[in-house]
F-box domain-containing protein (Byssochlamys spectabilis), 682 residues
Amino acid sequence: MSRVYVQCVLCGAPFVGTGWLGECRSVYTRGHEWSKSYLSGVGIKDIMHSALCLVPVDPKARYDDPDYGTTPKLRLGTVPLFEENRNIFDPNMRIEKEPWGFFFHEHCWGILCEAAYPREIPIHTLKEIFMSCPASYCGIDWGNGYGGIYGRLLQGAPGSSGFLGRLKDLEWRPNGRPDYMNAVWRFDPLRIAEIEELLEESCSASNKQRKVDTELNSEIRSYPESKKSPLCDPLTTLPPEIRETILILLPSQDVCNLRAASRAFASLQLSNDFWASRFSPGFEFSFVFESRRYLENRLSSVSWKMLYDGINECSAIRSMRNRRRIWGLMLPLAQTLIYIVDHPLKGIPAPTFYNPGLPQTGIRWRFTSSSKVLHGHQRDAACRALHSRMIDFDDAIDGAYVSFVKFSGKEYVSGMQFVLASGKVAEIGYILPQKRIYLNIKRHSGQFESNLQGFCLAVMQTGIGAIALVSSTGKLSQWAGLPNGIPLGLLVAHGSHISSLRAYFDVSIPTPCLQQILSLQGCKMVSLGIPHKGKAALPLRDTELWFPEIPREKSNLVPGWRNSPSHYCPLLYLDFGGQNGIYLTNIVSVSLLVSRDSNIPKAIKVEYDRPISGSKVRILDKGGIYNSDAQYDSLVTQGIKFAIDGASGEYITRVDIGHIYGDLESFADFNVSSNLFPSRKE
């Protein structure tokens, strides 16, 4: 295969050399055994441009063990093998047996374990979270640039996750070898000598700190209550012990603000307990997990103020900066893993490509999804339909609670709790009570509008970001989540109400149950479906994702013109004529805009003879609608312009673009037809 550098899926840095950057672990699967996951031992990946790695099978084994030569080992690839990609490594590999997995540095694994402490890392859940991210032969893309060490390329369609750019601080020498000596990511984030030295110095300085604490305690005990005055800060009425407890519970920035605003808090000396709290979970120095052994043992033999100041002074050290960066990546991942373990996936299990052994539903479904391919494994998929759940409704629906999960800085729908008229609750998905929004489909008078007819969904490439309910009268509820800037899709059962739902989720965990049907739990929702009744073709308005808005009902859309692609590809929509064609008489021209340095069409521009909603221009491209030329990309220039005499009753009846064979981005001709000019070809 081509030369690529394989990156650690936890920190993003490549595997290079024989130091910590070359030490490799893996969470892996044997062939197509999707429900099984294993943790390997520590191998050494000293060949930067290889997508294969030799690791010991035993998780406790290392490449530098004395008996490593006789230790059982595995040769792992970075992707599962199928017929279409079996030749990328070795044509003799067995497709359904070859092990593959996700590689990470041993030291990054150690930091993840510290972030999850005292819980253990659920290996299968971790693998499925990895599988839920956009992947390549090199690694995966979390969407966060790995804490800033990667740039990001321009995004594609609205709602897409974009593309991971080049690794920063990685330069190439004339001889073709990489130069990364000054990059922050190459410095060991786990074993930092300065932290251990500071802990030793802080312990030796503890006697002086204990003297300060004694003086503080004496001040607290002898606090002169009689000196209080009505003109004083009212917070002086709080005992010093309470004030100190308040400061210990507050973030450091809030402590500074409070001490600046209140004389009562400003006069309170900060104790050793306060400085120790800065190293507790949730505070700024929680990444110094070496201090945990002192915090847990309640040892007062540490000058926490001295340690705090020392860590501050060392904050510019590259290894410390790398620790902060990786800790910022590992902590939310560890929290997500723990949440998933503690919350079950609700609903009746249904089969998927990765879990085909469950009973078939016998129902024909129609889905609105982040990917059109729900059955199969795509290497570059932005998310995967790993698990599926169903629910049935036996009563009218009052409303629904929508739960959300945060992943890589974005919020996704994770599950729904439907409140039935009988008072019962029907649940599907991953339910998080602390993060949920209630949607109501009642009339303001309190009477039902009838029943649930469907949903309006805001769908990103990586999952469903927002949802609204549609009643049987077509009324839309409020939104749960933020749909702005995300393509929208309709999922409506025309002429009937919904009695069943099916959803797909992209993260799960096996639990120790005797029956496989009860052994799966999960995370964010990537697809939602309703029963599809009848044989008539659905209108285009119902089958596609639209941006920035869904066309109005009864819009004159060309039926059946599009074979929906398997990848994420929403349709862009500009209602330039207005409702019932109210603005057609104001149109003076339509232009196709192309890139300045190529023949690639980029946008459609419509001009009016007067301001429409404050602007005489509408420009539609993959990023949305622009209301002026100044807002639009300077790299795009006007290509082909057609004058339209809207005032005389001319309107567009047809637009044709002829592509060059094999190149869908460029075009050979552009043809606009109107009621007055049947064909004007460029």
Q: What stands out?
A: Residues 7 and 13 are 5 Å apart (CA to CA). Residues 213-230, 508-522 have pLDDT under 50 and may be disordered. The radius of gyration is 30 Å.
